[in-house]
Structure formats: C-alpha cells, structure tokens
Amino acid sequence: MKTNRAIRTLGGLSVRLDVRAATVVALLLAAALAASVVLIGTGDFPIPAGDVLKTLMGNGNAGQEFIVNELRLPRVCVALLVGAALGLGGALFQAISRNPLGSPDVLGLGQGATAGALTMIVLFSGSSAQITVGALVGGLATGLAIYLLAWKQGVHGYRLVLVGIGVSAVVTAGNGYLLTRSTLTEATQAVVWMTGSLSGRDWAQVWPLLWLCAVLVPLVLANGRGLRMMEMGDDVSNALGVRVERVRMLLLVAAVLLTATATAAAGPISFVALTAPQLARRLTRSPGPNLLPSLVMGAALMVVADWISQKVFGADQLPVGVVTGVLGGVYLLWLLVTERKAGRI
What we know:
mainly alpha; 345 residues
C-alpha cells in the first residue's frame, strides 16, 4: 500500500505527505496529551480525568485549580517539553553522525551538563537557578569542545561519535573528582540532580524551554530536507545544492541547545534521546531522520515514564530518570539482540 501522496497547491508547488508518518504523529500526540491528563490527576489527591479537563478549561473549584494549575500542570509541561527536546536532539545527532548510537547519552553532553551543575553545587554552593545555569553552560561548552575536536575539513559521523565518547570519559572522570570534593549534603544534592527528576518543577522551568522550542523546532524542521539529503553523502548533497557544512553546523548547534536546556531543566534524563528516534522510525517505517515523530515520541515517553514512577512508587519517591534508564536499557538490549540475530552487528 502506498503511504506517500502528492498534493499540488495552486501555486504549483508539490508536497509529499507520508500518510503513515502523519498518522503515527497524530496518534503519539493524542497519547501524550491523554497521558498528560491522567498524570495531572495522579498524586496524593487523585483527580478524575473529567475534572482535570474541566479545571484546565477554568471550570474547576478553588482546590482543584490550585492543585492542577499551580502544582501539577507545570511538572507535566516540563516533562512534555524536555521529552520533545531530547527526542528531537537525539534524532538530529543520529542523523548527522549516521549512527543509531550517536545520541547525547553517548556523546557526553549529559555528562558535560552534569559537570557544570556539580561545579556550581560543590565549588560555589549555588542555588537552584545557578545550578540550572551551570548545567546549561556545561552542556554547551562540552558540545563546542566535541565539535572543535571532531573538525577536520568538516565534521564526519564516526569521528564525531569517537570524539564524543572520549570527551565523555574525560568529563565523567572530572565529575567523579568533584564528588570526592563534596560534603555529605552537597553529594546528596548532586546525586539527586544527576538521577534526573521532575520533582518541584514550576513555571520558571517551563517558559525557557517553551521559548527555546518555539524558536528551534521550526528552524530544525525547515532544514529537514537538507538533513535527509545529507544521509546520501556529502558529495551527493553538495551536487544537489545543499550547503552541507552550514546545515550540519546549524543543526548541531540546535541539537546541543535542545539537549543542554532539557538537561538543565530536569537533570540528565537517560535513554530518551537514544530510544525515541529508534522507536519513531520503527513505527513510521520511513527512511530519513523522522524529526517530528521523534519529537512527539520523546514527549510521550517522558510523560508515561513520569506516570509510571508516580503510580508504582508514589509521587517523588522514584525520579523519572531511573524509570527512563530501566526502560531504555531494556530496549537497547533488545535492539542489540535483534540486530545480532539479523546479522547486522
């Protein structure tokens, strides 16, 4: 069955629509929103889904409006935005490196953000806002270092992954040293942050993420065609009129910003950036980076993981980073076994 359909507009422009991919995006978006409503109603004071929807539309009582709008909605918004940013950032890294393991988890951006946060915690006893800024600066600095070290008449996939693994090892060692310098209180605070958590998130974390996504997501999607052509090789892409290095650098910067900001907001959430693009590609069965499906898949994974952590273990007892780590690790093992049976590794 054909899944692509050409639509011709009055201006003579032809647009190809992948019906299966569009359907997957719509279903994942619906699932993410439905899970968000259920998550908002989950907690020490359960609220039925119908009452959650009424409260979101301004028809709830005073108690429900406070619980929903002030306590739980910001956390869910952060989960959606962090998941979307990690899913899109992971898809960009995997497409640019042409490697399914080329995700921020492997390249060391999470470790870089952790180094910035630990620096603020251990050396400066920083506040929550200062820790967030430190994590953002650490992630951006690590991304810049990887790009510069991987540059040799351009940045190529395997070199980027290898340099990222090396930088990750160095930064991880530095993080271990910072932990040995910390007091018991600082070490406890650092370990909680390093696990990745959505506890205590409020509107102060939502707005920076929202503005960043509002700017970067359209920019990334507008360059999706060039990114898809780059998967055929630099020579072919140049022949087709794609400014390869310009597009690659622009999308790498966007991916680093998305990943670093998401990590600064919620801590290093593991495996979402790695698994979301892989799951999206398997659902759409479409070649190419699958940017929009990966974005929506990441958002859905984060909300579902946070719901699991609260439903099974109680609110704030198990950080969401632990759940994503377990689910992502199981998926990675399954993927490796499947690839090995297929003779691809």
